[in-house]
Amino acid sequence: MELLIVISIIAGLMAMITVVAANMITTARTAATRGTILKVHQMLEERRDAFVYYQLQRGQIALAISVVKNSGYNDRQARQLAPVVARKLLFKQALPQHHGERSLSNPNATPPIVNQVKNADSSELLYWVLTSSTAFGIPAEGSFQFNGSELGDTDNDGLLEIIDGWGQPLRFYRWPTRLVRPGGPGQAIQGAHATRARVLLGNASYDRFNEDPDDDPLRRFGQWVQAVGNESLFHTPDTWHAPLVLSAGPDGETGLYEPHDIANLGHLAAPTGADQSLYDNITNQNINIGSN
Questions:
Q1: Other Cβ atoms closer than 10 A to 8
Q2: Domain coordinates in residue numbering, the chain
Q3: Residue 152: helix, strand or coil by DSSP?
Q4: Across-strand partners of 151?
Q5: What does pLDDT average to in each consecutive run of 10 residues of the chain (292 residues)?
Q6: Is the pTM above the cut of 0.85?
Q7: What's the number of CA atoms in the CB half-sphere (13 Å) around residue 119?
Q8: How many CB atoms lie within 10 A of CB 105?
């Protein structure tokens, strides 16, 4: 009897130690992930700040005029809209999020990178943007900014990814507007939409969610996107956005379509409907509210 009591006590202690150890590991991984994401966020914010003051070049405006005129607008309308569209095109070029937008060179990949569809796409490109690409006058940071535990190659294609504390690639969404307005252009943002968006984007008012920070006061860009159906090329109009860097957390599920999944508007962070998966996600926009 005494032996059974001792065994029961030891078993209980071992169970407690296991739970405590698991919690400590989860806490450590969460802290490491937040640190990595905060580092990435600061690098992206430096580029966004530079973008605000960037002066468009003549060739960039000419390209935007051509894009707008090809959609059916006349020359006068195209010239009015061109500065906003030029900035959208420039931002898109500077922050690609899947290999359909910017294919990275890797001669050892089989099949070629451009033909692969991978959940690591946006993380590979995010690492490339921050460490190898100059944007709006901000130089590349260099790979030394990241330590070994923050980098991996989860899909074995020879391209480094920024990973979280669970060894999974971070996701990067340049314009997460479908997270805010899942029904698309013209849909009113309902309470449930705002609640979901705030889980990943932090607390924001309806007025803020209803506004594109880069459009002009006359809403020319939003009206154009709705008129010609260019949401898939840009983003949902009249909707707040800021670059979203996301870890799926302990469960490995994001609750969003992948950034390369254009068919489901995953490049705009469209939700899959599995809202429960959102609550342990850690993002650069929700760290201040606890990320779960």
A1: 10
A2: 2-53+95-289
A3: strand
A4: 162
A5: 70 63 73 94 94 93 95 93 94 92 70 65 94 88 85 91 96 96 91 92 87 89 90 92 95 94 95 93 79 45
A6: yes
A7: 15
A8: 8
